[in-house]
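Supplementary Methods S3. Input chains for the assembly prediction are listed below.
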Amino acid sequence: MKRFLIIVLLLNFSCKEASKEVVAQVKNSEAEVKSDIDLKIYDYDGLEPLINKTDGKVHVVNFWATWCAPCVKELPYFEKVNAEYQDKNVEVLLVSLDFPRQYETKLKPFIKAKKLQSEVVCFDDVDQNRWIPAIDSSWSGALPATIIYKDDKRQFYEKSFTYEELKTEVQQFLK
Amino acid sequence: MNFSNHKRQNTNTYGVSKTLGLLAAIVCFVSLTAFTITTDGGYDIGDVATDFSLENIDGKKVSLADYKTAKGFIVIFTCNTCPYAVAYEDRIVELDKKYASKGYPVIAIMPNDTDVKPGDNMQAMKARAKAKGFTFPYLMDDGQKIYPQYGATKTPHVYILEKSTKGNIVKYIGAIDDNYKDASAVKTKYAENAVDALLAGKEIEQKKTRAIGCSIKTK
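Predicted structure tokens for the full assembly:
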């Protein structure tokens, strides 16, 4: 009993600490990039509502990073889905797992160079053993990974997509 | 299942009554363990891991069977090109320094297709091992035949094996620790705890953990 409580208290404490840090980081990045790119940084508690919306829309959530070659290769397909299905209530969210020290040097220049139109958020939470299985019990932790969901219907993919494959999956949610 | 809800429920109810608190703690614990049960091919805890004969950076072939006096192995699928793998290099060296003498040497295996990732070819592996002072074998999974048998999906991906009369039994699968960013901020050293438990003849508390890594590259 005592041990459970200690674990729970520890978890609770670490989450509070983590969110404090994130608030500070968000503030910093907002100050730095006011006229630049507005990058929001979340820990898992912050990200969770963004990947569990119940608004009747189809949400395509892609976990990626600029250093992940297969992720970069498939990004244009997500962009294409975002553009082509915008009027069909489909929203793409690109969740970047780039390291915080590279937000300014790698991530922002990448977003600018590729002119990414889908929403990009940063996800920075070291307690991966907590949030990887919470996002999907089958996720081993490899990138890229994608969730497609609409309200309660949900699919998880630990794989790379071609555009055709991605389109087929998205269309299943539009039926 | 929503983990954070369980957690919230748990802390809130404890204030109300101890019984409810205990119930919630059990729910929390059960949901935690439920997450760790996955079998997507490859080995699970308790399986016998295959031996191999793979080329090391010194040109010699290495097999687990070569290690006559080892009690087990810390097999780590890792590479040069993945930032997560790079973030753990020093910690992998430390693991070998700490546990090789106790009977659990590190055996590093590079699983990527080097046509897809030329930065992981044998020459690059040699250079990286020299630069970082690897004290353990760094083997090429030539033909990519070994990692699928283990069920490795990413780098770094750790398999801790214990030698037995039946072969090398898989005792732990997952991450090295719980903070890829900052070794000094680590709260739980999963891999060390697992080896410590094996050395002490105790049950490993966390037999499976998850961490982000780079997918293993194939054609």
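Chain B has two domains: 3-35, 48-215. Confidence is low (pLDDT under 50) at residues 1-16, 28-39 of chain B.
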